[in-house]
Structure formats: C-alpha cells, structure tokens
What we know:
single chain, alpha+beta, Transferase(Phosphotransferase), domain 1, Phosphorylase Kinase, domain 1, 2 domains, two-stranded antiparallel sheet, 41% helix, ATP-binding, serine/threonine-protein kinase, Testis-specific serine serine/threonine-protein kinase 1-like, Kinase-like_dom_sf, Protein_kinase_ATP_BS
Amino acid sequence: MVDRWRKIIDSIVKLENIEKKINQMDEINVSLTINLDNSSLESNDDSSVHTDEIVHRPKYKILEEIGRGGFGRIYKVYNRHKDGLYALKRLCFEGEFQDNKYISAEVYCLSKFKHPNIIILEEFILKPNRLYIIMEYAEFGNIEQYVTSNHNISSSDILQFFSQLTSAVHYSHSQNIAHRDITPSNVLLTSKFDAKLADWGLATPCGVDRSNPILSDDYLGDYRYQAPEVIRNSPFDPLPTDIWSLGSILYFMLTCNPPFEGSEATILHNQTNVGVSLPDSVVNSSDKLVNVIVKTIKFLMVADTNERPNIETTLYSSSFTNDLENDMHDIESQFLLNI
Length: 339
C-alpha cells in the first residue's frame, strides 16, 4: 500500500529529473548516550549558557542560537571530535527530567525511532535541571523559515516532502505514537533537501487497540495547523489530528500561508462550517501537479474524524490513490508529448 504512494511520488521526481537533464542539455547546446560529563559544552558569546559550562576544549562549541520554542532553545554547535555541525536543544526542568511528560516524550521518541525522515539523535547531555539533546543539523532550517525567506517550493518538491512526511508519520503511528504537533516549524530540511520530522515533545501514545484509543486531554500546539477536535478542548483521538496536520503542511507549502488564521473561535468556526479554502489561482491552476496537491489537501482536511482518512489504510489503498495514479499517467503522457 505504501509502495503505491511511493511509486506515484517517484514518477514525479523522475519526470523532474528528466526535465532538468533536458534543460542542462539545452544550456550546453546553447549513537545514543546519556552524557554526564560537565566538559561537553563551550559557549560562544551566548549569555544564556552559564559560565560553569565553559571549560577547556569541550566536545561541543555553541556557535549561535537558531531557534526557540515553548519548551527550549536550539543552537547550532560544532562537534570537535567529529568535525561536524549539529543542532543542540536545551530543555530546562525541575527535579527529574523523567517527571516532565513533554521532555520524556521527546527523549523516548528520539531514542526509539529509527527512520530516514525523522530527525537523527546524536546523544543526550544531562546536567542539573537541564537536558541537552544533540541532533543532526538541518542546513536549510525548517519549512516555515525556508518559505518565508522567499524560497518557492516547486510542486514536485512539495509532493516529495509530503511523501517523506507521510512515511515518517506512518512509521510513528505503527509504533502507536502520534506526533500531535506537525507544523511547518517542526519539519526540517537537510542539505540533501530531505524533509525530517522533529520536535516530539507533544507526542503521545495512542494505544494498540484502535477500537479503544487512548484519548489526549491537553490542547497545546499551533491552532492554525491543528484539527478542530483539538481546538474544541475535549478529549480526542490523537491519530486523526496528525492526518489533518499533514494537509495543513501541504496547504502552507503550496500557498505560503496557514490554512486558517484568527482567534480559536474563528478558526474552529471556519474549519467546521466553511472548510478549507484555497486561492482561485491555485484551484484553477493548469499545473497538473498542483491539481494533485489540491486534491490531496481536500482529502486530508476533513472536519469529521469519522470521514478523515486513516494513514495505514485509506490514504494508501482508497480510490483516491487510484485517482492520483490516473493523474500521474496523464502528466507523464503530456510530458512525453512535449519533449
């Protein structure tokens, strides 16, 4: 089932690569550890890192702050031992870090998950009341930063990123974990232009028995990308919320805007009574790949959780997938005619 979706995306990328080669020809013709060593960090003019962490030739040198969120700050660091760049996330806590469910969730997921489109953990560094998570460094930052820096994402790249994210979410759901915070700021882009899902602090177990799911009863996250059941502030099944958020990511990559804005009440009203609305320029696009993306957004962003697709089955085996395959066949035929 997953292979069918992969085949669709691969055909898109294949066409894109062929087109690039033709254009080039035309131009020619024309490890996980809990590290208790206090000598692991060195600050580089960063006042938020205490001087007791500055020691002779530590393993990591902090270069600059590259982000911050509700649970901590993120720095670009240099690993002297491996001569490479990494990202360091600093989390503060009181007592034992295991008592903080959000820190525990991130530690659990990063240490357990092994997937090419989930951010790779290097190690943990544990200090009194602070935990440092060392991860792979994403050279292009997150998708929100990339798009707002006036970088247009091609329709083929959008579908490529979407394929990678659905693969990551499919994997986490197979491990009975829902991410619950899939937003453009939590999707990172590596130097190879691969999308990686990060920031697992809101992740939660969802239960093995899907007829009796474990309901979530906290309502955090960016409501512009959250499903209506989260904004209602009543216990909800976390798995379908990830599906909605995947649609929200697609919407942002296509339009450079979140699908909904305003107060919580306004967003909820529009989600449940108006539905997702796309610009006319997108809906009426002659680009068949854009049409595929629009169809996918509408398929995922359904307010009723009973009608929203399930990532393991409906998303990959429904008539919707057959429609995408037919669309791709038309695109391939048209492309070959134009060569």
